[in-house]
Design goal:
The complex is a heterodimer of chains A (108) and B (120).
Chain A: E1 4-7, E2 10-13, E3 18-25, E4 33-38, E5 45-49, E6 53-54, E7 62-67, E8 70-76, E9 85-90, E10 98-99, E11 103-107
Parallel strand pairs in A: 2-11
Antiparallel strand pairs in A: 1-3, 3-8, 4-5, 4-9, 5-6, 7-8, 9-10, 9-11
Chain B: E1 3-7, E2 10-12, E3 18-25, E4 34-39, E5 45-51, E6 58-60, E7 68-73, E8 78-83, E9 92-101, E10 104-110, E11 114-118
Parallel strand pairs in B: 2-11
Antiparallel strand pairs in B: 1-3, 3-8, 4-5, 4-9, 5-6, 7-8, 9-10, 9-11
Classes of the chains: A mainly beta (108), B mainly beta (120).
Chain lengths: 108, 120
């Protein structure tokens, strides 16, 4: 099974900050990496697919990069609405998918 | 609008069965692969099961294999999850999700979730 490891597990930041979350795969997954945002009591929301493609309707301050085993999600200019938990998910071993453990982004 | 609505959750005793449903609307359901994803209280997301667009291929996480069956009725635009021999660690919110397709293995539409609590 492909394991996905996110870092950090939690992060404190301020409105306006630039934030980076990292996701590492246990083996090469090419660009089959997706990012989701989840707010308390809500379903996850797709932000980025295929490592760097912005999902329709997602603000351009969200961006993704990486390939192989190392990936990053960057939020440029944090907004109050961005404080949430973020998950990566690999699509390489389709359809046996796995998620990272999550990164909780909190207000400093 | 494009929507998934789950139902069927509840409180069930260990060892018993439960059937979840996910009603799809606003898109051509029969052309999309679908999944179930769950989230235990205070925990992260766990992929549970996948069914191909036509129902011919089904895959399961090791944690539920042999106890869970995913199915779909494309004439009714509905996805199902039959769960048997439920265990306490099956307690979670269960989400159905649409696979985006086109060679991108992401989930672009999610339901609001239905809660399953396994407790005596």
């Amino acid at each position: 099974d492909i394991q996905m490891t996110q870092s950090p597990s939690s992060l404190s930041a301020s409105v306006g900050d630039r934030v980076t979350i990292t996701c590492r795969a246990s083996q090469d997954i090419s660009s089959y990496l997706n990012w989701y945002q989840q707010k308390p009591g809500k379903a996850p929301n797709l932000l980025i697919y295929s490592a760097s493609s912005l999902q329709s309707g997602v603000p351009s301050r969200f961006s993704g990069s990486g390939s192989g085993t190392d990936f990053t999600l960057t939020i440029s200019g944090l907004q109050p609405d961005d404080f949430a938990t973020y998950y990566c998910q690999q699509g390489y071993s389709t359809p046996m998918y796995t998620f990272g453990q999550g990164t909780k982004l909190e207000i400093k | 609008q494009v929507q998934l609505v789950e139902s069927g959750g509840g409180v069930v005793q260990p060892g018993r069965s439960l059937s979840l449903s996910c009603a799809a609307s606003g898109f051509t359901f029969r052309t999309y692969a679908m999944q179930w994803v769950r989230q235990a209280p205070g925990k992260g997301l766990e992929w549970v099961a996948h069914v191909s667009f036509d129902g011919s291929n089904k895959y399961y996480a090791d944690s539920v294999k042999g106890r869970v069956t995913i199915s779909r009725d494309n004439s009714e635009n509905t996805l199902y999850l039959q769960m048997n021999s439920l265990r306490r660690d099956d307690t979670a919110i269960y989400y159905c999700a649409r696979e985006i397709g086109g060679g991108d293995y992401a989930f672009d539409i999610w339901g609001q979730g239905t809660t399953v609590t396994v407790s005596s």
